[in-house]
Design goal:
The complex is a heterodimer of chains A (288) and B (283).
Chain A lengths: L1 H36 E5 L2 E4 L2 H8 L1 H35 L2 H16 L2 H12 L4 H8 L13 H25 L3 H9 L4 H29 L3 H7 L6 H11 L3 H26 L3 H4 L4
Antiparallel strand pairs in A: 1-2
Chain B lengths: L4 H27 L18 H4 L12 H34 L5 H9 L6 H23 L10 H25 L3 H9 L4 H30 L2 H6 L6 H12 L3 H30 L1
Classes of the chains: A mainly alpha (288), B mainly alpha (283).
């Protein structure tokens, strides 16, 4: 009786999980894998093969877009870590108890603001008639308005801005757990500031660093708005290619191929990151 | 760590500059909603609320801009549906993974987290492709027109719920983990039925987490762009309407007015979720 009830409740709890993961995650992913393997040879006539993938690798524009997206994503992740770490350390270890909570909350504010609003804010600041150009002009520092949008540096600044919070938050929560006695011991044993940083702080913060890097990288590689709005028409971003194939050209076979490649590529990077550092997905990304 | 005073000052200045970098675009997006000019740029021509309230062109205010209002209505509707779905599924998942034992549990747990690491654009196209496959099949084999499987609000709801359910599951699981099982045992010993225990003991304990999961899901849904972009039909939600206007028409300060409303709205909701969670921390 009790066991039957246990089974029944297990079944009832399993149903939503299976429907969700099965219908919204697993089957759709198989679906794009399937579409990526088929090739249109006539109306509702398809043949199957790797031609779409071959097309991708033979077309330098597509290939280079993926490489460019990958390269910028890695650069943005590294920048976010380098810029974010001192801020996270300040919040976790140096700020006074009371200002710590306030600083942490301030870090979270942009998290609640849509990407769209943030990108729009950058546009208002950086475009030719924008705030920065106008102010510099008034101050006499420049003589003609400058267009600061539509170049790679701006795209990178905007991307770092969009993702850096996801780097800082896991870093702060890891660093907060570090006992200051560890640092004192390091100094007492004659370690220089750099040695203490390299041998004590960084190893201690490793789970936070890995979690932050994974989330940051995934978000950057999958981002759409920031590169498109700040980079303009020629931003050559990979998600933009996917959108163009799907919606503008209605070439679902090519679009699905690009989607599969992006997913494989990001999964590969995440997997490599986890392997190199000996972490798992459950201990990094899911750790509230 | 830095002990010399000048180093400490440099460090503080760095942190201050960082926060300036964080806040500057938000101020820029917000401030020009109140500039009495046709363009969101300097010079400052005086304070106005026209971009919120003015009923006439060329300064058509947000409250009279029917397309933006319709977008907001769609976003609200989508957000509430998505949040309800994601919270219901997330609560069920929390009980499944915290209370039940079954084969392949750790593998399935990883599978539950996976939606978080699938880029939103890919989630969008995969659901678009899968839904179209089913719709085409129904059309060709059964002669049925399944319109809700074509791009539109139902697909947007499913697409957003697909990854938000992971977030709600994690938030609610974290709270359920802290639950003292002896409370349930006490209630059962006192003769309460299992359903009664769930309704009067366990769910009230979970309420703060359920509430904040609902708010997080609603906010993320309201602001989602990537997944939505791939699934949007004729009823565009606010982010899509706003994006279209930014790209096609060029921006007017009415977009800044929308930004102000969005920032205030999400700020208040986030505050509400923090306040509801707070007393629970001491418990």
């Amino acid at each position: 009786m009790g066991r039957d009830a246990g089974r029944l409740s297990l079944f009832l709890l399993f149903t939503p999980f299976v429907l969700w993961i099965g219908l919204l995650i697993v089957l759709p992913q198989i679906g794009i894998g399937y579409v990526s393997l088929r090739e249109k040879i006539g109306i509702n006539e398809f043949s199957f093969g790797l031609k779409n993938y071959a097309d991708f690798f033979n077309e330098p524009i597509y290939r280079n877009t993926l490489l460019r997206t990958a390269w910028i994503s890695i650069l943005v992740t590294a920048l976010a870590l380098v810029i974010g770490f001192p801020v996270a350390y300040y919040i976790a270890k140096i700020a006074k108890e009371r200002s710590r909570a306030a600083l942490f909350l301030m870090c979270l504010i942009p998290l609640w603001v849509s990407d769209l609003v943030r990108a729009y804010g950058w546009i208002v600041l950086l475009r030719e008639t924008g705030v920065i150009s106008t102010v510099l002009l008034r101050l006499g520092i420049i003589s003609t308005p400058i267009e600061m949008l539509y170049n790679d540096v701006t795209v990178i600044i905007g991307l770092v801005y969009t993702v850096i919070l996801f780097m800082i938050v896991p870093l702060v929560s890891t660093l907060q757990g570090m006992d200051d006695a560890l640092l004192e011991a390091g100094y007492n044993l004659g370690g220089s500031r750099f040695t203490v940083f390299r041998r004590i702080i960084v190893p201690y913060a490793m789970p936070g660093i890995v979690a932050g890097c994974i989330i940051t990288f995934m978000l950057t590689a999958g981002s759409y708005l920031t590169p498109v709005l700040l980079g303009g028409k020629n931003s050559s971003w990979f998600t933009e290619q996917i959108y163009n194939q799907f919606i503008t050209r209605y070439n679902w076979e090519a679009g699905a191929t690009f989607g599969v490649l992006l997913l494989l590529f990001t999964s590969l990077v995440v997997w490599a990151g986890l392997m190199l550092t000996g972490q798992s997905l459950a201990t990094t990304v899911a750790k509230d | 760590m830095p002990s010399a005073p000048h180093l400490r000052w440099i460090y503080r200045a760095y942190v201050a500059i960082f926060f300036l970098y964080l806040i500057a675009p938000l101020i820029a997006a917000g401030a020009f909603a109140f500039n009495d000019s046709l363009f969101p740029s300097l010079p400052w021509r005086g304070f106005t609320l026209d971009w919120f309230f003015s009923p006439t062109e060329p300064k058509l205010g947000l409250l009279h801009d029917s397309r933006l209002l319709r977008g907001m209505g769609n976003s609200l509707y989508i957000g509430l549906l998505v949040a309800a779905l994601a919270v219901a599924a997330g609560t069920s998942n929390a009980f499944l993974f915290e209370r039940k034992q079954f084969p392949f549990k750790s593998t399935l747990y990883i599978l539950m987290i996976v939606p978080l690491v699938i880029p939103g654009v890919i989630l969008g196209i995969s659901i678009l492709v899968f839904a179209s496959m089913i719709a085409n099949f129904a059309d060709r084999q059964l002669g049925l027109f399944v319109t809700w499987l074509r791009p539109g609000i139902p697909l947007i709801v499913l697409g957003q719920a697909a990854f938000l359910t992971t977030i709600t599951s994690l938030v609610i699981s974290a709270r359920l983990k802290k639950f003292d099982i002896s409370l349930e045992e006490a209630a059962l010993n006192l003769g309460a039925s299992k359903l009664r225990v769930l309704m009067t003991v366990t769910l009230p304990f979970l309420f703060p987490a359920i509430f904040s999961a609902f708010i997080v899901a609603f906010l993320v849904s309201f602001e989602n762009f990537n997944t939505t972009l791939m699934l949007v039909g004729s009823d565009a939600p606010l982010t899509i309407t706003m994006y279209d206007r930014m790209v096609k028409v060029g921006s007017t300060p009415v977009l800044n007015a929308v930004s102000v409303v969005l920032m205030l709205g999400s700020g208040l909701l986030a505050l509400a979720s923090v306040l509801v969670q707070r007393p629970s921390k001491s418990a």
